[in-house]
Amino acid sequence: MENKGTFLAGVAVMIGLICVGLCIPKAVKVMDSAKRNVSVRGLCEKEVPADKVIWPLQYSVAGDDLSDLYKTIETNNAAIVAFLKGGGIDEGEISISAPSISDLYTQEYGGNNRRFRYVAKSTTTVGTGKVDKVLELMNRQGELIRSGITLESGWEARPAFSLESLNDIKPQMIEEATKNARASAQKFADDSGSRLGKIREATQGYFTIEDRDSNTPQIKKVRVVTNVNYSLTN
Fold this sequence. Notes:
The chain is α+β, with helices and mostly antiparallel strands. It has helices at 2-35, 66-86, 131-138, 142-146, 166-191; strands spanning 37-49, 52-63, 94-96, 100-103, 118-128, 160-162, 195-204, 208-211, 219-233.
């Protein structure tokens, strides 16, 4: 009886090993299938007009009498404000900073060998969403020059254009980038003789906003890249 029990136990072990052996290929196939995937990137780019502009209008005047200098600044600033309002800019969109005054006689180099003692710089800043009106006014700066006001054109006086409505176009751009990613994944699946499955993982890249070029900073190029991982099936 003891030998018979040992024999039956051995048979049971053998049957168990055979079952495990039969199951291994299927398990390997499932695990291998789980590893089959394709990672792709989807790109979306759009050119969008800026919807906000900050435009500093700067000029400098020189003289020997501070009182006369301030009067000139007040007259010029009034002319600039009238110019802006006449071009469709509201008063609440205009701000005037206190003038910056330099006493050239107190500077280390040059001493009293200066034509004028004082130099004043004044800045009037426009902050508005009326980008088109500002562009029109920029093309009409000659009117200020004819009235004796020469605006500076350095780095500090450059207008800054921005896109405040980015959130309004984000969903559409993400959708388009994802469609482009799926098209790339589908091409890969077709070439490999597979079927494209579900999305396993997806990450949204950063949105970037750049000027289209140096001559048209009022046109922005918006770009986003999505990373998507799809499963593949036979």
